[in-house]
Amino acid sequence: MNITVAGTGYVGLVTGVCFAEAGYTVTCFDTDTEKINTLSAGISTIYEPGLEEMLVQNMDAKRLRFTVSPAEAYSGADFIFIAVGTPEREDGSANLDFVESVAREIAEHARGKTVVAVKSTVPVGTNRKLAGFFNPRSGISIVSNPEFLREGSGIADTFQAERIVIGTDDKAAGDKLAGIYRRFGVPILRTGLKSAEMIKYASNAFLAAKISLVNEIANFCEVTGADIEEVALGMGMDSRIGSQFLRAGIGYGGSCFPKDTKALVKLGEEWGCDFSILKSVIEVNSRQKQKLVNAAIGIAGSFKGKRAAVLGLSFKPFTDDIREAPALEVIRQLLDEGADISVYDPAAMGKMREIYGDQLYYAETPEEAVKGADFAFVLTEWPEITAFPLEKYRLFMRQPVLLDGRNCYSAEAAEKAGLTYVSIGRKAVLAEAVAAATK
Ligand SMILES: NC(=O)c1ccc[n+]([C@@H]2O[C@H](COP(=O)([O-])OP(=O)(O)OC[C@H]3O[C@@H](n4cnc5c(N)ncnc54)[C@H](O)[C@@H]3O)[C@@H](O)[C@H]2O)c1
Ligand SMILES: O=c1ccn([C@@H]2O[C@H](COP(=O)(O)OP(=O)(O)O[C@H]3O[C@H](CO)[C@@H](O)[C@H](O)[C@H]3O)[C@@H](O)[C@H]2O)c(=O)[nH]1
């Protein structure tokens, strides 16, 4: 059974390595020669816990290889998983150029009966359109197989997926794909092609909405004196609500929620449907990302001649991905305000350096980052950061103002440690500071 994965990004690489781990023979194909050379040397091109070890083991066992040749990748494949990017276009819609280019290459090179499974997140109707790239007599069939893994827990999410969605109008192709997933022993949901495409967008829209709702409630808690941590705990005990995705903070980032919510709004427009809730979800998230800098301005008046430390650059812990990370917005605002900035992250410094180069100081430890700073922003709840003791902020900072975008610390402990502490949804000081900044 030969499996090919097109695209070796966060989804493609995890998928390829996990299928090899499950015992299949896997070829991973990418157009990026540098990536393929690095992977062929047994080095993971992304930070994903446990991935590099699994990659090396499967390469050694001759179950996993990498190539830049579409002929080699597609001609002998029984299954081809498309896992290339579908990034946001300027108008918010999903850019399908990469997916279409893969479909064209498959049409050129695939021989015999091949099931093409589309893991990339694509708007409803795309898979049917892609089927039009293949000659009806070619034996190629298309299945929508959206991916639900989270970065930072990609391997566990693959082997212990809560569901595999297989959407197709071609029952035999769906049966074949279900067959290769059987080894994973996870629930499989069979649907029509369009429903599978919609399940993906609807799931991300729902999760993003949950976060924006809880953030809006957190903002109201600040005004009223309630504490969002207690409120979320109480809400989450209701099994109809569920305790996950109720963490208030600086807002959601990443390569999926921001782009997929916008793509769904755009898709709605194309079909004459107004996604008004989703538009508010996006708006609330965008305001949330500016909240802490506004609060800091409310406290400091100005950032001129001031030093800010940013702890946590990736959009969530256990990944090096900074796509749409709140840190990008905070750093942009701080640079506009004229602050000196030092940053720290256990995995994402390289990616940040690619964007900001010498405009930032890249510290090797949280301690080094906060030394001499007037403000410290905690933006990602990496264990290295949440374990950083409150006393050290007071000890090393010039003015100990801690702005905690992930509610990592106890407000009481922070105050006891002598810090001016601003968090999300817990202290009236933030609402007052924001009001002062926006007067
Ligand atoms: N990142 C996630 O956690 C996640 C989770 C679920 C679904 N998704 C969806 O999966 C898709 C991939 O996301 P990602 O984050 O892995 O993307 P990515 O940007 O990390 O990787 C995409 C890869 O595709 C390669 N590529 C581009 N054109 C190609 C071609 N013609 N042939 C072969 N390779 C090509 C690129 O070089 C790159 O390595 C997107 O649609 C995304 O929305 C992502
Ligand atoms: O209670 C919460 C939960 C998450 N977040 C933020 O939301 C973003 C996304 O987090 P998460 O969903 O854990 O990571 P992703 O890797 O972006 O995964 C999401 O996006 C993927 C791509 O579509 C989907 O496959 C996953 O199912 C979906 O969870 C991050 O910035 C988190 O900090 C919060 O602010 N509060």
TrEMBL record:
Domain UDP-glucose/GDP-mannose dehydrogenase C-terminal as annotated: residue spans: 309-411
**What does the UniProt keyword field contain?**
NAD, Oxidoreductase
Alphabetically, which GO biological process terms does the record hold?
Answer: polysaccharide biosynthetic process; UDP-glucuronate biosynthetic process
What EC numbers are recorded for this enzyme?
1.1.1.22
Question: Which residues act catalytically here?
Answer: C256
- One of the record's GO molecular function terms: UDP-glucose 6-dehydrogenase activity
- Note the PANTHER family from the entry: UDP-GLUCOSE 6-DEHYDROGENASE TUAD, UDP-GLUCOSE 6-DEHYDROGENASE YWQF
Tell me what this protein is called. Answer: UDP-glucose 6-dehydrogenase
The organism named in the record is Mesobacillus zeae
Q: What is the lineage of its organism?
A: Bacteria, Bacillati, Bacillota, Bacilli, Bacillales
